[in-house]
């Protein structure tokens, strides 16, 4: 049976590999990312279930202020503004896209370069070429898409594409919407050239420009509608870091809302923006919005002006932000500011990653972390937030601290959205150690809870907000809050500089995992490749355990030699299981065999396994490290190898993202692991002595096959560890077997008489296994272990 299972497994794998090879040539093309709606109506939906009830109130407030000079002077449409650069010659580590409609953050891409000039953090799940974030929309005048933003240093910018250009074709293929562009680029690779046919403002004659594509930079923050292959039904699009009024005199935001009812919502208005101030030391932009007397009168207030600014510096992952509220009325007003956090943080690998979490309920791809003087470092799971949102519709936000809390509970060190390898959160300004000016902090979801599909709950869109202390601002006065936003990798050295060191969490075996990670860094620095480092680490570990492994191999050899005698005992005691077990234990005791000795090396390897798994799941240095340079299908040791995409033809039950057992990729390394496990069982498992043992061995083989399902989505680096360890174990057993002396004839004394057989001597060549058994059974004859000068027995 075991041989049939092994044959079937090998034949199935061979057939699958053949099918995949043919699929690449004649099969259907990979599934395109889900379509993105061309209108941005969903972008302004609020997170709470009663958000739509506020639309009518906002419209009424707009109508009241329609004739105001302040309202009339506002820009009629928003525009996108960029800070930072993707230029390799630039020292900026990010490229931010801001939207004057709402004055929030629409996108943050990490553009840091490594020593070879390549993107240090790029998308590991996208292999096509990258043109740039264009925020393209269908053009009104002609068939094509209009470009709304061109980031500095992007391939689009380098090629000469400009804001306002209308792209009518890409590589001679007509485009009518942004998805058409994505479809064409899906077939491309980095460094490929594409030809864009463009119609520019004031001209009707198309011009052709050539762009050289690059790798996809990691889009650390993005709209849910721009998530591409990670777009999840139920996640709502909303800009990050939005600012609004938390209180104006006696009117404040209710607990279940995101804005003051009946007051025009600043997050839905177009703010006036200044020109970007660019210099060698920093880039910055300012936004301001005035709410008129008529607009604020509906809530018993006077006119106010909201101001905010964003500043980034070369070589920094921090965004300095200042928010300000000016009282334009003739009397003092009680005012407070609400500042929302980031949302739409990267979902990279959410369907296979296993984020280490202190919560028993597990972590989501996006969790909330914070630290206060009272609570210390805490993590709020996205899973728990979704469960809460589905049960408590009237209170969609979970409070971290409130005005009636203690002083220590409102002493906030940081708060942010935490992903597996990246974090985006608020930290105090450079000259402060903590926030003491916020009266309320709460976390929640930017989702429709009932629309999140089953098995995709890990991908929920989480966020938070902060309310400042209410201040009595005199006429002509202002209230101001300065803070920073960290948006970068969970590199321990980087996080320590920003006070976010606790964001790196290894869980149990933390010291062991960090030790292994450090050793991998040293080995990788020496060999120049993390895959080789994992192989060398495995050899070091198995080499250090060789004495124990050799004893286990000798023990296994003894087991094979005793198998015939154990089988005879089983035949003699077919009807009496207790007698059979007792006789087997007696035989094992007389010959010095310990059946548990072979388990010791396995238990000693368990901490190595757990530590390496957690190092791969936490250490960002192992992310996007290739198995070997040039292998696109194994370019990330911290994730599955993704040998071939089968999501376009595999049923969703097996190949779905999150919903499938296996995921949308066929991974080859777990197959190699399972085949080596089966080979080890075949070569070294002793023959079955009875039906029960035979059934146990068959079940072990089946369990090994089933284990392949669980290994299918583990990191490629962990599979590499098991492959190396299995190959070492096979070679070790073969070597040990050759070093054991040849079999010697012996008579095994049993209570029923003398049975002839063969056995190998033990490790002490002075006494054979047969002699030891005879000595223990006959008794009077002195044994080797007794202190005498008995001559060595001659070997036959």
Report the count of strand segments.
31
How many separate helices? 18
What is the CA–CA distance across the termini? Answer: 39 Å
Give the integer mean of the pLDDT values.
81
Fraction in helix: 25-40%
Give the structural class. Answer: alpha+beta
Give the SSE map.
Elements: H1 2-26, H2 53-64, H3 69-72, E1 80-84, E2 94-99, E3 104-110, E4 137-138, E5 145-146, H4 155-159, E6 166-170, E7 173-174, H5 178-185, E8 193-199, E9 207-212, E10 218-221, E11 243-248, E12 251-252, E13 272-273, E14 277-278, E15 283-291, H6 293-297, E16 304-312, E17 318-327, E18 333-340, E19 367-372, E20 376-380, H7 382-391, E21 398-401, E22 412-418, E23 422-428, E24 438-445, E25 462-468, E26 471-473, E27 478-489, H8 492-497, H9 510-527, H10 530-544, H11 546-572, H12 577-590, H13 600-618, E28 644-645, H14 652-655, E29 665-666, H15 669-684, H16 691-711, H17 716-739, E30 744-750, E31 753-759, H18 769-778
Antiparallel strand pairs: 1-2, 2-3, 3-10, 4-5, 5-6, 6-7, 6-8, 8-9, 11-12, 11-18, 13-15, 14-15, 15-16, 16-17, 17-27, 18-25, 18-26, 19-20, 19-22, 21-24, 22-23, 23-27, 24-25, 28-29, 30-31
Helix pairs in contact: 1-16, 9-10, 9-13, 10-17, 11-12, 11-17, 15-16, 15-17
Keywords: Cell membrane, Chaperone, Membrane, Protein transport, Transmembrane, Transmembrane helix, Transport
Pfam family, one: YidC_periplas
Family: Belongs to the OXA1/ALB3/YidC family. Type 1 subfamily.
Explain the overall architecture.
- With 796 residues, the protein is an alpha+beta fold.
- Among the domains are: 127-215, PDZ domain (Pdz3 Domain), CATH 2.30.42.10; 512-739, no CATH class; 741-796, no CATH class.
- The protein contains 18 helices and 31 strands.
- The strands form six sheets. Strands 13, 14, 15, 16, 17, 19, 20, 22, 23 and 27 form a ten-stranded antiparallel sheet that branches. Strands 11, 12, 18, 21, 24, 25 and 26 form a seven-stranded antiparallel sheet that branches.
- Strand 11 and strand 12 (251-252) form a beta hairpin.
- The longest helix is centred in the last third of the chain and has 27 residues, at 546-572.
- It is elongated.
- The model is unreliable at 1-9, 15-67, 742-766 and 779-792 (pLDDT under 50).
